[in-house]
Every structure is written in C-alpha cells, then in structure tokens.
Amino acid sequence: MSTLVEIKHLVKSYTRGGQVVPVLHDITLDIARGDFISLMGPSGSGKSTLLNLIAGIDKPDSGILRIDGEDISLLDEGDLADWRASNIGFIFQFYNLMPVLSAFENVELPLQLTNLSRSERRERVEMTLGLVGLSDRMEHYPNELSGGQQQRVAIARAIVTDPTILVCDEPTGDLDKQSASDVLGMLQQLNTDMNKTIIMVTHDAHAAEAAKRMVHLEKGELISDPS
Amino acid sequence: MLFLKLIFKNVFRAKLRSSLTLLGLIIAVFAFGLLQTAVDASSAGAKAASSSRMVTRNAISLVFPMPAYYRERIKAVPGVKGVTTAQWFQGIYIEPKNFFPQFGVDHETYFELYPEFLIPADQLLAFKKDRQGIAVGRKLADEFGWKLGDTIPLAGTIFPGNWQFHLRAIFDGKEESTITRQAFFHWEYINEWLKVKAPRRADQIGVFVVEVDDPARTADIAKAIDAEFKSSLAETLTETEKSFQLGFIAQMESIVLLIRVVSFVVIFIIMAVVANTMAMTARERLAEYATLKALGFSPGFVGMLVLGESMMLALLGGGMGILLTFPLAQGFAKSPAGNFFASFKVSPETVWMQVACAVIVGLAAALVPGIRSARIRIVDGLRHIG
Questions:
Q1: Which has the closest alpha carbon to B83: B63, B69, B104, B102?
Q2: FRET pair for B155, CA 20 to 30 Å: which of B172, B260, B267, B269?
C-alpha cells in the first residue's frame, strides 16, 4: 500500500498563560492509503493534537506533514479550508450537527462547497443516508434522533464528498454499547468496502480493536507503533 | 439558500431572548419615529408658510397691537400686493382642554391671501355675509362633530364675554401640511363690541398679513414697511411668514433639542441590547462555527452568518416598529396631547431615518461578535461547549 500520510519530526506546542507547553515532540509516522489506524493514549498525550494536524485544522511548529504528497503545513488558511473540504471527512465525539438543519440538510452541508447541482446534491445525500441506514430519517432534526442515529448522520456528512481521509475524534465516546458497536462496524465497512483511510482517536481499547493498526502516544511521544 | 435558511432558523432559536430583543427593537424604532415626528410637527407651521407672505407686528412684542389705519399705509408701500388683518382671540370652547387656534380676521380679504384654504364659494359667501359667521378647518370640524349652521360658543379671555358664532364655512387644506385645525371669524364682530365697552382697545390690530408681488424682494419690502412707521407710537417689525413661525418655534427650542437627543439615546440603548444578544448568541455557537470552518466554510461565511442574523433581527424589529409608528402617530394626533401640534404626521424622512437606525443597529451589533466568530481557531471552537 502507498503512503498517504507522511509525518517527519513533527513538533507542536501551545502557549497557555504565557507558558509554552510542548504537546508533540519529534513525531515521525507514516499512514498507508486504505489503512484504519487508532491513536491511543492518556489525556494530554497529544493524540487529538496529532489528529487535528493531520486534518488540517491546526498547524505544526516544525516538521514535515505531507498528505498525498502535499505539505499541508505550507498552505494558507483559505487554501487549507479548500483542501479540507475535498480531502477530509470529520466525525466528532458529540456529532457536531447543526441543530437547526434536518439530517438531509446536515449531510448536504459540505456539498454546498462543491459545484454540484441541486439534483445531484439530492441524489448523493439520499444515497449516503441510505448507506448509513437513515433513509427514513432524512427530514428529522438532530434533537429527534438518538445518539447513534446522530453519529450516523455525522458519518454520512463525513463521507458525502468522498474524502480521502476520515478523521474520527472519539466517535463512540458518547454512545451506548450497541450504538458504539454499530458505528465501529460502519467505519470498518467504509474502510474495507470503500477503501477509506481512517484515523481514529479513542480512549476505548475495545473501539481501538476495530482498527487495523494501533498507535500509542504518551506525553507527546510515539511509544509504540506495531507497524 | 442554505445561508438564508441558517440565518432564518437561527434567529428564533432562543425564542424568548429573540422575542424580547425584537420587542425592544420594535419599541425603540417606533419611539424614535414618534419623537422625530414630534420634532417635525413642532416646525410644521413654518414648513407650510408661504414665501410670498410677510407678517407685520408691533416691534416691541406680539402682545401689543397696532392701529388699524396702518393697513392703508402698508398697502401703499411699493411691492405690496395685498394686506389683511388677524387678531389672536384665545377663546375657550366649553372647557380649556378643547383649545384650538382662533383668529378674528378681515373677513373680506383674509382668504384671498390664503389660497391653501379651500372653501366652497357658497360657504365663503355665507361666511362673509354673516357678522357672527365663523369658518373652521376640516380637522377641527371633525374633531368636535360640527356641521354647517351649528352655533359655536366661545368664552373670551383676552376679550371677555360669551361669544356666539355661526358655522358658515368648513375649509380643507390644499396640501397635507396645511393646518386645518383652526378657526377664523369676523374681527369686526369683536371690534364693534370694543368700540362700546372698551373704546381704547378698539380699532387695534394684532398682525397685518402682507402679500408681496415678488417673493425675491421680501427683505426690501419689509424694510420699507418698517421705515414707514419708524418713530411712531407703534413701530413695526415685518418678517417673512416663515421667520414669524420660526420665532414661535425658537421659544421651545430646548424642548425640541431634548426630544431629539432622547430619540437618539433610545436607539443607542437598543443598539447595546442587540449587541449583547448577538454576543451571547455567537458565544453559544462557537462550536458550530468551528465545525463549519472545519468542513471548509470560510471565516467570511461564518462572519456573515452572525451579521445576517443581526441584520434580520434589526430589520424585522425595525420594520414592525415602522409599521406601528403610523397608527400610533394617528392615535396620538387624535388624543388631547396631540392637539398641541397642528399636524402630527410621520414624514418619509422619519421613515428613512428609522430604516437607517435599524440598519446601523444591525451592523453595529454584529461587528464584534462577527469578527470574533470568524477568527475563532477551529480547535478552540470545537472544544467550546455552548
């Protein structure tokens, strides 16, 4: 499998109350196309920061971060927004759906940034909601859906633009056991059937087992990478 | 489409907060409109003044009269086309709260100099023929339910006695700004009584209304009239009708200024209220704005969402406030307090000012929260719990 994400000597720190707090130290990691990787580690280990950097919603202090051959740390804000729109699908712990939009409209949201016509958007949204088993819930608003259903809408929103990478931040963290299992099964299916590259941050060892590969971080350092 | 849908649905997301803000906006905008209308109304008389008419009064004060024979000498001044007379009466109709302006005039010539008062020819003739005849404006007739032939009693204050007048004519205004809440009767009716009861007060006139043949020459003609009576017992002061009216307005200049200031203070307060609403709203939605940015929407889109919501709130409140201004102004005009103003109508300028205020409130209220939301770092916004 070819390398999709290439990380070399990545360093990231934050400034809190005038103090520089190092978060990631010299991270080097490759992720292959079509891989399903879980990032694990205790709170403050830097796993979410690493995920944010890969997703292009934060910038490293130094190091190389290439996605599909492009060094995204060199892109400006506008280009990075465009890059995210076409390459990244986000799945958040608390779903982050727009409460005033229906399931259909939430899934359609990223397509508003494409050149697709209204009918093409409709067709694609209906197909994607069908994929996650929510064809009969299209007009429902987030507060009319269970947590598991909301996360499935979020998954549909993440894949509707057919992105290269899905980044998942604790996707099962707010779900009951059954819903969590459904969501993980869905992610595995997207990985195997649609060859989506998935990077998932989780605390949950059981959820991490759904991935093909587990990476552990501690105090900003990669401590184990079975690959 | 999505942009408008998001704005529209977000506006009423916090129903109670939005409704209260909207209510505040409505009240502020119509209060501003009413206060501005009161300012306009205070100068309505001056606006309706004719440029070809001047007023000659006693130079010492308006309360001092002038001899009636001045009229012929004024008429002889070059450039003077016509002269008529008017005397403030200040009678009480039933009770003082029914106040309306009343003038004893030269019944033969007065209406010739005031073509903006439209009187049917037969009614004008009837008015001229009846020594106790009175002509009233439509607004006044409607207010008291008077009909032609009615007897209108007025208790004199400056000229004591119970005076009975016969309603012979009802006039309309040529323009909307023409004041039709006033009454005119024969000065001769009062003067004849004065000749018997108070001869020293007879044959005296309050003001002469002078019509000039060339409005561009009013300054020269005024000077000539006043020169005519220089060093006489009653020196005169002649000025354009507009200046004469503005002289009255100047007496309540401080009140008008206060009303003007209060009207803008009201708008400033609501601006702070809407800004607070928008700041709270934007703070609660930081996670949503961060999500939109993560999905690829630009900071400008997020900023415009805040601005759009603020503008929609401001324009909704402003629009409803403007619509409410008209019936409220009408209601005020009909109330006893409204009788203080000759005309209390909402002008197009006031409506435009209300629109401008609503737009400024919307823009100003969105400025800081809009910029802050647009600039939010995605990772910080995603951590935010509203």
A1: B69
A2: B172
